Amino acid sequence: MGSVKVHGMWACSYTQRVLVALKLKGVEFEYIEEDSSDKSPTLSLYNPIYEKVPILVHEGKAVVESVVILEYIEETWRHDPLMPENPYDRALIRFWLGPAVGSILQLSGEEQSAAIGQARESLRFIEAELTEGQFKGRKFFGGNHVGILDIVLGCGSFWLKAMEEDVEVKIYEEEAFPMFHAWVCSFEELPQVKETIPDAEKFMDYAKALRKMMLNFGNP
Ligand SMILES: N[C@@H](CCC(=O)N[C@@H](CS)C(=O)NCC(=O)O)C(=O)O
User: For the GST C-terminal domain, which residue ranges apply (predicted)?
Assistant: First the structure.
């Protein structure tokens, strides 16, 4: 298998994507926690362009950008596939990758309501896809098994919850998005996810502090 190391940050949903994928594949790895306030030389060594985590180092070679890493993991360890076999299904998954709910945390006032509106709009699409669209009847977007799209959306859902609590706006109610809600629950029940997601209270404190910092940064 060769040595596998992951440089990450505990509250980083991009890092969690990589950890969940490796665990689902049963790949053993060493985890190295990086400090965002005091960047180690590792970041500039392995990711000189962005200096961001996650970084996967496989047999001494670095791979960066979480979705690129997910695809690398999929292509390197072929068992327990995270992508469908059929090219059309693969295209579908790639199309849906990367929904933009993360921006709400950084916004306030009118901009924030616009971002919340956008997030709800995306959720409505996802709900419709799960109810009567291309993902109808599936437990996961990947079918009966978790796939790349589940990992990307699922790891982001912790931020969605943190945003809801922090901005005191309900972005998704169970009643309005029952299929999405059921999917989130199935995802969170997976042991590989449970052991990866951060402690809720610690995470909320971090999310609040981060939001405060971002708002101050935006309005000096
Ligand atoms: N597009 C990147 C985003 C990674 C990212 O934003 N990482 C954050 C932590 S969640 C980071 O390393 N921030 C440090 C910094 O920006 O200085 C990915 O998908 O991997």
Answer: 86-210
CATH of the domain at 211: 1.20.1050.10
Indicate the pTM of the whole model: 0.88
| Pairwise CA distance, residues 191 & 198, whole Å | 13
pLDDT in tens, 122-162: 788 888 988 998 889 888 988 888 999 889 888 877 777 77
For residue 173, what are the domain limits?
Answer: 87-218
Same-domain check for residues 145 and 46: no
9 lines ligand 1 (CB under 6 A): yes
